[in-house]
Amino acid sequence: MNDNEVIILGIESSCDDTSAAILKNGRILSNVVANQKVHEKFGGVVPELASRAHQQNIIPVVETAIQEAGIQKNNLSGIAFTQGPGLLGSLVVGTSFAKSFAMGLGIPMMAVNHMQGHILAHFIKGDQTEQPQFPFICMTVSGGHTQLVLVRNYFDMEIIGQTMDDAAGEAFDKAAKIMGLPYPGGPLIDKYAKSGDPRKFEFPTSNIPDFNFSFSGLKTSILYFLQKEMKKNDQFIKENLADICASYQHTIIKTLFKKLIKACRKHNITDVAIAGGVSANSLLRSELERIGKKEGWRTFIPSFEYCTDNAGMIAIAGYYKFLEGQFATQDITPNARLKF
Ligand code: KG4
Ligand code: ZN
Fold it and tell me: Looking at domain 7-122+307-324, does it have CATH number 3.30.390.30?
């Protein structure tokens, strides 16, 4: 390895995925994700079980990432880890591991905000020819967050709009649960929606001021709607699954774009990105392209492996912190409600 090479180990453990990635000068060499199946039967993430699974997974996942990258641990320049936001018991595992591994190797560590990681995934060097130019707006939509972020620089970000209650991913997952689909239901709603009619059923959209969102009313409306229909016909969900999914998904995506368009016009932004687990949604991706053309935006969509939680995004954020000399000290602690 020569002196110009910066090799970062990224560690992500904020929720229910244990992930480790190796990034060399901004390029991914490996990105290993261990999903935790244990939550499926509970219909949501059980924090205590997540923490325990992270403890079991962290060493094998890091070892696999190092092996797949074809490097030795002594080649590492620094270790990036998710400090928050997330589940405290889950964050503790990644943070403690990063602290001891960095101390053992005598290399610096970088504390990363998970939400900034989602956004900075756009700067992972790969097949894409262009990266967003500052300032741009990123709509970060995940299971825990829905944010419109004005990104002025790598670590100069301002949340200009966010959800007042449920996140977009939560709206997907909770509706899926009501329909009897396993957790996480977002990808399944996306899948069934493909053969459904988005205009078959109408769900209300919220009317929240500024660039903020609300999804809890939508969730309640699908619950009451399905309860009413199931009383009349107990096969209603089964018989109409594709149309329900398509109509519900259409309502969420329409709500998101209403605010995104408003924010971009207000801030004169023409570079627009999406990030977070829900950015894997096929309608969100196609609508970004369609609306982007109409609005004159350059649009940036992460490749699937960098949409949902992964350590590659933590490694790239850590890489920029490394270049700027923003290192964490051994007294750092995880923060479940970390802001930026
Ligand atoms: O970013 P992420 O992996 O974890 C959090 O930080 O929350 O996002 C997970 C969320 C879940 O709510 C999941 O249902 C949703 O992303 N999701 C999707 C799709 N793929 C993942 N939602 C809709 N359509 C998808 N294709
Ligand atoms: Zn996430």
Answer: no
